[in-house]
Amino acid sequence: MVPPFIELTNLTKNFGNGKGIFDLSFGVQQGEVFGFLGPNGAGKSTTIRHLMGFVKPQSGSCQIMGKDCFSQAALIQQSVGYLAGEIAFIEDMSGISYLNFIADMKGIRDRSSIRDLLYRFELNPRGKIKKMSKGMKQKIGLVAAFMGDPSVLILDEPTSGLDPLMQNRFVELLLERKKKGSTVFMSSHIFEEVEKTCNRTAIIREGRLVDIVQMKELSKLRNRIYTVTLHDKESAQRLAAVEQLDIINVCGRKVQIRVKKELPNTLRVLANYQPTDLQTETQSLEELFLHYYGEGGHKNA
Ligand SMILES: Nc1ncnc2c1ncn2[C@@H]1O[C@H](COP(=O)(O)OP(=O)(O)OP(=O)(O)O)[C@@H](O)[C@H]1O
């Protein structure tokens, strides 16, 4: 069997008070786009800082391409495309001098990938970083991570602060890199970007690995909530009482319905009631976690 390209072995860092990461062991294969999902404070950034060799593990270890992330940190940091969760810039620099500085550090001579990325993210890097908006700083961080087409990318919440158009640009970029065979480890709060890009995802909670799931399996578990508006209250009451639907709530003319797989059937039923409006929302990632693992962090399904 091929050894994992990125490997964590019993990785542990105990900050006290139950905070930190505990006994994390899993591997990411070459060419895989791997998501790392978990609620706030779950330990995602701490894990990523270990992978980049910024912190010494208390026990256990992690490796990228067979290199120990801590003892060979310089090598890792030079070859991996990295985006930090909170990017520490030398704020007095202009965007372009910062990018040139990173390119020099990484030994990237051909600057064409920087130009392409700036164009893709519609970013003018001439101004000083300290005067840039959060989204612009995030784009600078992304250009720095993706420049020179690294074969491994480690990204901590890559679309934080980006508007939906730029989030889509990021997804397109990642899919292109996936096609070219890059290996990606990416933390995120946004289910959709993980769903569109990742092969598998690890779920972490309170510093512990809860599960590793194929993205397709996780998507199947996700509910959609439809809010249908009918002509009058009586029709709404009748719909809720008579039909075999998973009704969440009835309020006046509006009925909220949870739909898992049976969408065609639900739509057929609703058509009989001649709705005046139909709205849909997807279950949030947090709701999905609760549904899947329960309050105690144990798998229900
Ligand atoms: N250097 C530190 N000293 C003490 N506690 C820390 C330290 N770094 C992180 N923590 C704590 O460890 C836990 C995990 O933090 P971490 O930043 O890894 O979470 P995260 O999953 O990235 O969260 P978020 O989604 O909010 O960014 C948090 O409770 C945090 O307060």
UniProtKB/TrEMBL annotation:
Keywords of this entry: ATP-binding, Nucleotide-binding, Transport
Residue intervals of the ABC transporter domain: 6-231
UniProt xrefs under Pfam families: ABC_tran
InterPro entries cross-referenced by the UniProt entry: AAA+_ATPase (IPR003593), ABC_transporter-like_ATP-bd (IPR003439), ABC_transporter-like_CS (IPR017871), P-loop_NTPase (IPR027417)
Signal peptide boundaries: none
MF terms in GO: ATP binding; ATP hydrolysis activity
Annotated PROSITE patterns: ABC_TRANSPORTER_1, ABC_TRANSPORTER_2
Family in the record: Belongs to the ABC transporter superfamily.
Protein name per Swiss-Prot or TrEMBL: ABC transporter domain-containing protein
Organism from which the protein derives: Blautia hydrogenotrophica (strain DSM 10507 / JCM 14656 / S5a33)
